[in-house]
Write a structure and sequence with these properties.
Oligomer: homodimer
Number of strands of chain A: 17
Structural class of chain A: alpha/beta
Largest interface: A-B, 74 and 73 residues
Largest sheet of chain A: 6 strands, mixed
Strand content of chain A: 15-25%
Number of helices of chain A: 15
Shape of chain A: elongated
Distance between the termini of chain A: 49 Å
Helix content of chain A: 40-55%
Number of domains of chain A: 3
CATH superfamily of the largest domain in chain A: MoaB/Mog-like domain
Strand order of the largest sheet of chain A: 2-1-3-8-7-6
CATH class of the largest domain in chain A: Alpha Beta
Radius of gyration of chain A: 27 Å
CATH topology of the largest domain in chain A: Molybdenum Cofactor Biosythetic Enzyme, Chain A
């Protein structure tokens, strides 16, 4: 099955936004084993849209279109679809009714411009959209076209709810493809390749750099679902064995979520004291639903005074070794652990730049500490990059440090 | 002048990466006043690449291609270009020599696979690439094709060094276009449209939703550069007047940076106490270089105990009104201000969800407080969305609250 993706919008072809919808849809299609052969973007122009719709329909079996379904005058995709396939462009009564109901439910005023969204090409079937209004399906010359809105969250919801089930149904009995995403932090890409060099089997492995992590896409193909699943499981286990502790997660798992699961499993709590990461470690930990079960609190201590008064870092330590030092990191971790009475505590102190570096303590120098009941580990790093990258890398190393520690308990 | 952009690579059409090259190139072309009419992505496949090359050359005046120029077997763009236009695919001696020299300069071993990159379609002119190897230009049927590598930094360098000068030369004497991005937080998109409805003039205005902000792209065209610049300035001022305090920044400015500038201007310092935003406000503030001049510290208080012990929120307040209340927010802001001895302090407390909501205090309910020397303002909000969106929206409102406050001083 050949699939083409069309994204509509001046904001895309003028480069005002990066087209994340196309990547999301392509990845969703790919993960089921269907093949995207082309992605096309055009502007808000009826003639241009209808031209690419006709061309794509002549080449592909499934065409997924996003964008241009809203209520403003530059939303022209429905009209272009009617024109492309010589269909009447008319008000869809049932669709209009469902839009009206949604507006009522959301307590929004229904206006004539909202009514415009119910104008569809004849024969179009509205798609369920749990969090928005638009979306429809069209059959043309034995091909199927899905028209989705341009809002990424709505694209995701409709893809999950309608598009993926449709694809699964269509490709049943054909080649079976199963893919998984393996997430690694620690070694470089070259290091990962060396660790995996002896791995044998009939699979594809793609390296997807995802700073500061490395993501590996494992793809297994075959005729029989059970066989493909079994092989995929075997290869995953093989990779897991070779990469060991460096492999931290799979598919939707994120590092901060893995850390959270481990903390819950061990019945432990955690707190953080941040200088150079400026709140990013706490922010990442608290992105996970339910993190309040194990995350008790954090402090962002940018000044020496706060390090001293809030965390009890002794003044002579700050004066003798400086705020960016092994000793200060250790006292920060101990201090925040005591303050929040947590099982574990983390601390970061360093120079995120671009200014503030010295020959002895250059930009990128970061000390990271992990405090437990009876020990404190401190590590020294020299990171590269701009302020944002140094903060991100330091937060990643901090979370990974506690992950590795928890795995040894 | 019509421009099409072609990006080549399985990693793009399989959705393994987001196509930032296309957006970068489209924006560069647009900023000079030329118009991108189509963006196409295809995989690493000679037939598919040569098909889109032929099609694009039949429609557009300038075709910019990225990707598929490297030294691995799946780099097929040069070969496809030769095939598309019936040209010999041969070793370019001068190009080979320059590659050899680069390898020497970089202290890299020159291998047969490196030699492969010097195979070009007959008539191709190599492009200077200061930080990499490949890139060439081709003239075909009066049209120009630029072939660039896929590495974003190399795309940027060649665009600056070669592509933009070429475009400027071509469109000299033609239309001048100037654009700016205006950033708004506060009103809805409909609200912004209403505020701007009486604005007159010869300009284009595009709405680019950028949750939770609204970004407006203002575009002014004309024959004369000075006139276009003057009109752009006039329209910007007109918009600024209509939107007033809702307009917070322009082009590269970000809300946390604007807040930082205002704090520096007034010689003030700030600290934050975060519950539901979990460190995001501090993280955003500290993304700005030099923020240590005005940001003294923050605390993330997830537990009642931390709110009480660290910030001095009285237990009877927590018990009577609950941790998510106007009273608790007020005590948190006062407490963190006292703790860090800052001019101003911010506090957030709320339910980020997805669990933890009650009929009285639903998911999305957030109290935000701003404490100054002699007053504390507290506002109550009900935000929609998932955990991430609620955190993001709450952090935005918090930063915007202090921005608006600073502008009244």
């Amino acid at each position: 099955m050949k699939v083409e993706i069309i994204t509509v919008g001046d904001e895309v072809i003028f480069g005002h936004i990066v087209d994340t919808n196309a990547a999301f849809l392509a990845n969703a299609v790919y993960s089921l084993g269907a093949k995207v052969t082309r992605i096309i973007s055009v502007g808000d122009d009826v003639a241009a849209i209808s031209e690419v719709l006709r061309e794509a329909t002549s080449r592909a079996d499934l065409i997924i279109v996003t964008g241009g379904l809203g209520s403003t005058p530059d939303d022209l995709t429905s009209q272009a679809a009617a024109q492309a396939f010589g269909r009447r462009f008319a008000l869809h009564k049932g669709y209009l009714e469902s839009i009206r109901e949604k507006f009522q439910g959301w307590d929004l005023k229904f206006t004539p411009s909202s009514e415009r969204q119910a104008m569809l090409p004849e024969g179009a079937q509205p798609l369920p959209n749990p969090i928005g209004i638009c979306g429809f399906k069209l059959e043309e010359a034995g091909k199927t076209l899905f028209f989705l809105p341009g809002v990424p969250r709505e694209v995701e919801k409709i893809t999950e709810g309608v598009l993926l089930p449709f694809l699964r149904e269509r490709i049943r009995g054909k080649e079976v493809i199963r893919a998984s995403l393996l997430k690694i932090f620690g070694p470089t890409e070259t290091g990962v390749k060396e660790l995996l060099q002896d791995l044998e089997g009939d699979y594809e492995l793609a390296y997807l750099p995802s700073f500061p992590e490395i993501h590996l896409r494992l793809v297994v193909r075959g005729a029989d679902e059970a066989d493909v699943e079994a092989r995929k499981k075997r290869y995953e286990e093989g990779i897991r064995k070779k990469l060991g502790i460096h492999l931290f997660g799979k598919d939707d798992e994120v590092l901060e979520g893995v850390v959270g699961e481990l903390l819950k499993e061990k019945g432990m709590t955690i707190s953080v004291a941040e200088s150079c990461t400026g709140g990013l470690v706490a922010h990442r930990i608290t992105e996970i639903p339910g993190s309040s079960d194990y995350f008790l609190g954090g402090v962002v201590v940018y000044s020496n005074q706060a390090k001293e008064e809030l965390l009890g870092v002794p003044r002579h330590i700050l004066e003798r070794f400086g705020p960016v030092s092994r000793q200060t990191a250790e006292f920060m971790a101990r201090g925040v652990r005591r303050l929040n009475r947590t099982t574990l505590a983390l601390a970061t102190t360093g120079i995120a730049g671009p200014t503030g570096g010295t020959p002895e303590t250059p930009v990128g120098r970061v000390f990271i500490a992990l405090a437990a009941q009876d020990e404190v580990k401190v590590r020294k790093y020299d990171f590269f990059g701009d302020r944002h990258q140094i903060k991100l890398m330091a937060s990643e190393v901090t979370l990974d440090m506690v992950r590795r520690y928890l795995l040894t308990l």
